[in-house]
Design goal:
heterodimer, A: alpha+beta, Umud Fragment, subunit A, 3 domains, 4 helices, about 35% helix, elongated, B: alpha+beta, 4-stranded antiparallel beta sheet, 8 strands, SPC3 (chain B), transmembrane (chain B)
């Protein structure tokens, strides 16, 4: 089974194959990013604040273009609090003004209070530029793998090891 | 060639293909189920403006509008086999002080005053309820996987869930305020949909979902009302 290691040509081909898989995945991700105009077009739900609509581990497809209308009240958006890099998925419940300077307030469906407490110090409202995208598509449970990986980091090493082994041991 | 690793890979690959294909079919099936939501009544019944503070430790005083309303709507056609929950919400909309834009879809000021999550029987177990309410909810749809009757809403003089204000803190005597009913259908898998402005084949638009324009009253003063009572 380890015969491939003795054949440098085959080993190189396998390395190329592995690289091709990785770069294809990367291209698809970036391509989707360009189409949706969002830095991260697919996100995994990390908290239960939008239950029962979204559970932990559900996969959301985002859209960040305002082709037909502005981002409006009632849309579920993913936003980043200024100075923090944690994306939050909540629903817009208030909007004052129009255009990029419109003041937006969000709230999780499952939370009693709105998000004023979550925002940065001195920040009372979100602006359009804080928003990473509006949720348009939903797929349950698929993203749970990433939650497992981030909560149990050793799984990452194991998975990478298995993937590497498979690539090396695989013929053809 | 046929090592166990390859077999495992093939099985897993086939499994994911089937799962995604079935998911796509389910998501696509939404288009074929007609949506004919209708609104009978939507009107503001009792409007008050009071002064208050945004939170306990704040010294800022703001004006808050408390809009009670009546609603009669039939959204039962939105419940299909792919409906996980229906999010129904009522917004109050009013133009800005400058008053350039009316109360279109892009009204200058828009705030949710009331919302409700209506779960489908298949997602009842996910609702955030106490044990008694949960038992009642689950019993209400025993043996049913779809319960369209939950889409029938009748609210009379309903208290708003949210008291609304404006960043300027001023809201009293605001003209041209309207209430609007919206919904958001959350699927088990597929695209999230909102009430749309135009008919899309099987999906009819939500007509009559706008209330008449009304004016917010002046701030309710305790002393003034007491004097009135004394005068009478």
């Amino acid at each position: 089974m380890l015969s491939s290691l003795q054949n440098p040509r085959q080993a190189a081909a396998q390395l190329m194959n592995f690289g091709l898989i990785l770069s294809t995945a990367f291209m698809m991700w970036k391509g989707l990013s360009v189409i949706t105009d969002s830095p991260s077009p697919i996100v995994v739900v990390l908290s239960g604040s939008m239950e029962p609509a979204f559970q932990r581990g559900d996969l959301l497809l985002l859209w960040n273009r305002n082709l037909i209308s502005e981002t409006n009240v009632g849309e579920v958006v993913v936003y980043n609090v200024r100075g923090k890099d944690i994306p939050i998925v909540h629903r817009i419940v208030r909007k004052f003004g129009v255009g990029p300077e419109a003041k937006l307030l969000t709230k999780g469906d499952n939370n009693a209070a709105d998000d004023t407490e979550l925002y940065a110090r001195g920040q009372d409202y979100l602006n359009r530029k804080d928003i990473v995208g509006s949720v348009i598509g939903y797929m349950p449970f698929v993203g749970y793998v990433t939650i497992m990986l981030s909560e149990h980091p050793w799984l990452k090493t194991v998975m990478l090891g298995i993937m590497g082994l498979v690539v090396v041991l695989q013929r053809e | 060639m046929y090592s166990s690793v390859v077999r495992l890979q093939n099985t897993f690959g086939y499994f994911t293909t089937v799962v995604f294909a079935v998911a796509a079919v389910i998501a696509f099936s939404d288009l074929f189920s007609p949506r004919t939501p209708s609104v009978g009544v939507l009107k503001a019944t009792n409007v008050q403006v009071v002064r208050g503070r945004p939170h306990y430790y704040s010294s800022k005083k703001e004006e808050y509008a408390i809009i009670k309303f009546s609603l009669d709507a039939d959204l039962s056609s939105l419940f299909t086999w792919n409906t996980k929950q229906l999010f129904v919400y009522v917004t109050a909309e009013w133009p800005s002080a400058g008053g350039s834009s009316g109360s279109g879809q892009n009204a200058t000021n828009q705030a949710v005053i009331w919302d409700s999550i209506i779960t489908a029987p298949s997602s009842d177990h996910l609702a955030n309820l106490g044990p008694v309410a949960m038992k009642k909810l689950r019993r209400s749809a025993e043996g049913k996987s779809i319960d369209p009757s939950r889409g029938k809403l009748t609210l009379k003089n309903q208290r708003p869930k949210y008291q609304i204000t404006h960043p300027s803190g001023k809201l009293a005597e605001q003209d041209d305020v309207v209430l609007r009913l919206h919904y958001n259908v959350q699927p088990w898998v597929g695209l999230l949909t909102w009430n749309q402005d135009v008919d899309l084949w099987n999906w009819k638009t939500l007509r009559n979902n706008l209330s008449k324009k009304f004016t917010l009253p002046a701030i309710k003063k305790k002393k003034a009302t007491e004097e009135k009572k004394a005068g009478k």
